[in-house]
Amino acid sequence: MVRIDSEHVDFRMLAALLDLDLVIRDDDDHAFYAQFNQIESIKELVIAYRRRLPVCGVIKSFTAIAAEVKRMFVRPDYKKQSLAAKALSELENWAIELGFSLCVLETGKKQPEAIALYQKAGYRITDNYEQYIGIDNSVYMNKPLIVKP
């Protein structure tokens, strides 16, 4: 697991692959969601490598107490190997180090594998937040972070 920023070449490649996947899943709604997924100036990214192929995830400040999880992506040929769960755990640990006590995220109903990952990791579905209020395809989730002794 490597902590990087948004300039890292592997992250840029994964972000492009994720965007291609989301264009297909989101269809006509993609432009709406894309405006909230800009990657410039993101400082807290995690990349995990499996046989030199990367998996990514991002956290960014959402509120004074909450970090937002974004841009989680595993290449299709590396799914079901616990890589996303490990990357998510690392992001949560980093969020704790940065002083956050809550992680929030938004995903889509057309991403059932993402919803399952987050629920397995202890996230619960709650009301949509800010820009996603009233958006039927959006699923908002959060998880209190527990500081480990």
From TrEMBL:
Recorded superkingdom: Bacteria
InterPro entries: Acyl_CoA_acyltransferase, GNAT_dom, NAT_camello-type
Organism: Pedobacter suwonensis
Keyword Nucleus part of the UniProt annotation: no
CDD domains: NAT_SF
Database matches in PANTHER family: GNAT FAMILY N-ACETYLTRANSFERASE, LD18367P
Record-linked PROSITE patterns: GNAT
Protein name: Acetyltransferase (GNAT) family protein
Protease found in the keyword field: no
GO molecular function: N-acetyltransferase activity
Domain N-acetyltransferase, chain residue ranges per copy: 1-146
Alphabetically ordered keywords of this record: Transferase
Lineage start: Bacteria, Pseudomonadati, Bacteroidota, Sphingobacteriia, Sphingobacteriales
